[in-house]
Design brief:
With about 625 residues, the protein is an alpha+beta fold. It starts with 6 loop residues before the first helix and ends with a helix. A three-stranded antiparallel β-sheet has the order 1-6-7. Among the domains are: about 190 residues, no CATH class; about 110 residues, no CATH class.
């Protein structure tokens, strides 16, 4: 792998290579890849990477070698997701292209940005909206100052074409607009994920993350037949009709949001931070609760095992979605960007699974990325909601995931940009306690480490039950022993995942089982200055001017939500009602289940608090690291 010292020339050279039509193709034919690896001087908050800290907080013996692997995994590894994004989804075959991304980086001349602006490579109509060639695309991709590479992006030459994928750093790190340095572990709040997905030529590959519950309404005279797994004949949906609908639904996701549940509902959630120390369980639902590192490894795996490669859902599509696996796979592949993986279907043609088996770069398991079966496959378990984990051949089961969990335990939030005097801070803390906030947000990390039922927290309920369907395929709580090599051998040993009675009851809420409607984890309040807008749906947004309320009047008008005013709206009933009304006025937000409602724990005149009390509370909370 080429190192960061040459990143400027590599990226410029890479762009020149593409634009010049392959002058250096012979050099790259054997394979090349590049991902920017920051030096410690590039961080505002350099990783502590102390094995003692990780061991103390996790209850697991951690070595420096383990932390080094965790850092490498977090920053550099994609586990092959460039195959899915490039070859299947076509993320760079539409208006967004790799050459134009590189051109935009070079155009910065080392200035850095929190929002890489890329010229559209071609004209295309996406979800009813036309993007013209040369039009500026706001990506939300970060580029540190003095660096000639996008943060968290891997560029790779494979199979005679340039591909790109993302590491954890693309979403869980950002650039400080003041210094141009990297804020490690913080969410990339303006990463325009939904819009970038919509610009792909095969956004259909992400259709399970929309409100499409049946493919029948997309059957037209252009639909082609396919043989199902039980030998019957079925029709695949009209590829263009389905593509247009998926584009329409995802293109207006709030910035910094992504849908990560297999529930056939369009309900994106905000990208969380990666400051895991003291903040268990993990995920907005708290579904990452058991297994290594208090569930951190399970939470991490959920994103990579199903959301970076929707082909991984093929085997579970029937019990989870009611879609035969042949129909599901055919639907995902019929618009695949790379002709090698494109399924054409038709009478007398082989089944999609047989077709894909011939070209699958990772045979033996569902998916195109580096995925491996868990101990319960094809059933799911509390480590993986689709029964798969990711990892690199030559390592052990969960080794890289566990290493990353250990490394994340050593991350520390940067100092808050909001400073307040000691008197105001002390008063704010007193208001915090008097208002009862401390009942849920207690301790050093300001969290009860509990999952709160939706009936109690009353925020937008769609996502609360996001893991409900997994109970249809949930297997026993088992995992492979830590010495199990990858790929998994047939005689691999299994051990039980320890689960306490308290965790068992909490899992019922987190995974919406046994009649539960689900719930949301009590989030830590550390880092609030960096995480506006607020709540899981990111719906509590107010601009610098308090007349700009809700996402339609902030993000959708390219106005950044103000942390002070947005946090004020979280505790002020009158201001929140205006926020909710604004969000509800936008059909695209209603469809994406983004409202900003709930968590109605007011600290205002309705509960006996003054404006001065509110101000002190907000300033105290924003001053926390």
């Amino acid at each position: 792998m080429w190192k960061q010292a040459k990143s400027k020339w590599i990226l410029i050279g890479c762009g020149f290579f593409v634009l010049a039509g392959g002058i250096f193709a012979g050099l790259y034919r054997s394979g090349f890849e590049y991902v920017y690896t920051p030096a410690k001087a590039k961080y505002v908050n350099p990783p502590m990477a102390d094995a003692r800290i990780a061991s103390q907080t996790s209850g697991v013996t951690v070595t420096q070698e383990m932390l080094a692997l965790g850092e490498e995994t977090y920053i550099e590894k994609t586990f092959g997701n460039e195959r899915f994004f490039t070859d299947i989804m076509g993320a760079f075959d539409g208006p967004l292209s790799i050459p134009n991304i590189l051109k935009a980086v070079a155009k910065l001349k080392g200035r850095g940005t929190t929002n890489l602006q890329v010229e559209a490579a071609k004209t295309a109509t996406i979800g009813g909206k036309t993007i013209h060639k040369g039009q500026i695309i706001d990506t939300g991709i970060d580029v540190p100052k003095g660096v000639y590479a996008p943060l968290g992006f891997k560029i790779k030459w494979e199979e005679g074409r340039l591909k790109a994928g993302i590491s954890c750093m693309a979403c869980h790190a950002t650039v400080d607009p003041r210094s141009g340095k990297i804020l490690q572990g913080l969410p990339n709040r303006d990463f325009n994920m939904g819009y970038l997905l919509a610009l792909s030529t095969n956004t259909t590959s992400y259709f399970t993350h929309t409100n499409i519950t049946s493919l029948k309404k997309y059957i037209t005279e252009l639909s082609v037949p396919v043989t199902t797994s039980d030998g019957r004949q079925a029709l695949l949906p009209d590829p263009q009709k389905l593509e247009d609908e998926v584009d329409r639904q995802v293109m207006f996701w709030p910035k910094g949001s992504v849908d990560v549940t297999l529930d056939s509902e369009n309900n994106p959630v905000q990208i969380p931070d990666a400051l895991t120390k003291g903040d268990h369980p993990f995920g907005w639902n708290g579904q990452g609760m058991v297994g290594p590192f208090k569930g951190a490894s399970a939470g991490i795996n959920n994103v990579h095992s199903q959301n970076m490669d929707t082909l991984s859902q093929t085997v579970v599509s029937k019990p989870m979605l009611g879609i035969d696996k042949e129909v599901y796979l055919g639907t995902v592949l019929q618009r695949a960007a790379n002709p090698k993986y494109r399924y054409k279907g038709g009478k007398g043609k082989e089944r999609p699974t047989a077709f894909f088996a011939k070209v699958d770069p990772t045979p033996g398991v569902a998916g195109i990325n580096e995925l491996y079966v868990t101990s319960t496959y094809p059933k799911a378990n509390y480590i993986s909601s689709v029964g798969l984990t990711y990892g690199t051949p030559g390592y052990h089961a969960l080794e890289e995931i566990n290493a990353m969990s250990a490394w994340m335990e050593t991350l520390k939030a940067p100092a808050s940009p909001f400073q307040t005097d000691a008197v105001t801070s002390r008063k704010g803390r007193q208001v915090f306690e008097r208002a009862g906030c401390i009942r849920c947000h207690a301790g050093d990390y300001l969290t009860s480490n509990a999952v709160i039922p939706i009936e109690q927290v009353k925020t937008e309920p769609s996502r609360a039950k996001g893991f409900h369907k997994v109970q249809r395929i949930l297997g026993p709580p088992l995992m492979y022993t830590e010495d199990t090599p990858l790929p998994i051998p047939p005689d691999a040993k299994k051990v039980k995942i320890p689960i306490t009675e308290h965790q068992r009851q909490q899992l019922k809420i987190a995974w919406a089982q046994s009649g539960s409607r689900g719930g949301y984890k009590t989030m830590s309040l550390l880092g609030l200055a960096w995480s506006a807008p607020y709540l899981h749906d990111g719906g509590v947004a107010v601009g610098k001017d308090r007349s700009h309320v809700g996402l339609p009047q902030t993000e959708m008008k390219e106005l950044t939500p103000d942390p002070y005013n947005s946090l004020l709206a979280l505790v002020d009933k009158d201001l929140r009602e205006k926020v909710i009304a604004s969000n509800r006025s936008a059909a695209y937000l209603r469809e994406a289940h983004v409202s900003g409602e709930g968590h109605a724990f007011w600290v205002d005149r309705t509960t006996g608090f003054t404006k001065e009390d509110q101000d002190a509370l907000v300033r105290y909370l924003l001053s926390l690291p």
